[in-house]
């Protein structure tokens, strides 16, 4: 399984990433040990959303398309989980399950 996640940082920005081990990756982000360059300088504060999918190709597609959204659309995605509405012309929304 692959996980696509969104983190809120101390400056209220949102970071999106993928992993195969969500617990381990969150530990890395929150302790700043082997974390992303972005979360090292922006300090991860809270895990906002997590989706799972079956392979890296699908995970990378969703990660990429989330990163192209405007901040207001990302906030909407967190609140409403409206992947199909926001990204239906770019991904197969039924291939992703929101687990948080």
Folded structure, characterized:
The chain starts with a strand and ends with a strand. Helices cover 43% and strands 26% of the residues. It has one domain (2-98): GIY-YIG endonuclease (3-Layer(aba) Sandwich). The protein has a 4-stranded antiparallel beta sheet, sandwiched between helices. Strand 1 (2-9) and strand 2 form a beta hairpin. The longest helix has 12 residues, at 56-67. With 100 residues, it is α+β, with helices and mostly antiparallel strands. It contains 5 helices and 4 strands. The mean pLDDT is 95. The chain has helices at residues 22-31, 37-42, 56-67, 71-80, 83-87; strands at 2-9, 14-19, 44-53, 97-98. The protein is globular, with a radius of gyration of 13 Å.
Q: What Rg is obtained from the alpha carbons, in whole angstroms?
A: 13 Å
The CATH class assignment is: Alpha Beta
What would the CATH topology be? GIY-YIG endonuclease
Compute the number of helices.
5
Regions with little confidence, pLDDT below 50 for 5+ residues: none
| Order of helical and strand elements | EEHHEHHHE
Top keywords for this entry?
100 residues, alpha+beta, GIY-YIG endonuclease, 4 strands
């Amino acid at each position: 399984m692959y996980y696509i996640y969104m983190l809120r940082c101390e400056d209220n920005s949102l970071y999106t990433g993928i992993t195969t081990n969500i617990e381990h990756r969150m530990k890395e982000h929150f302790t700043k040990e082997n974390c992303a360059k972005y979360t090292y300088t922006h300090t991860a504060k809270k895990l906002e959303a997590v989706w799972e999918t079956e392979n890296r190709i699908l995970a990378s597609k969703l990660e990429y398309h989330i990163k192209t959204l405007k901040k207001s659309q990302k906030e909407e995605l967190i609140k409403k989980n409206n992947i199909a509405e926001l990204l239906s012309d770019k991904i197969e929304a039924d291939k992703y399950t929101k687990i948080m």
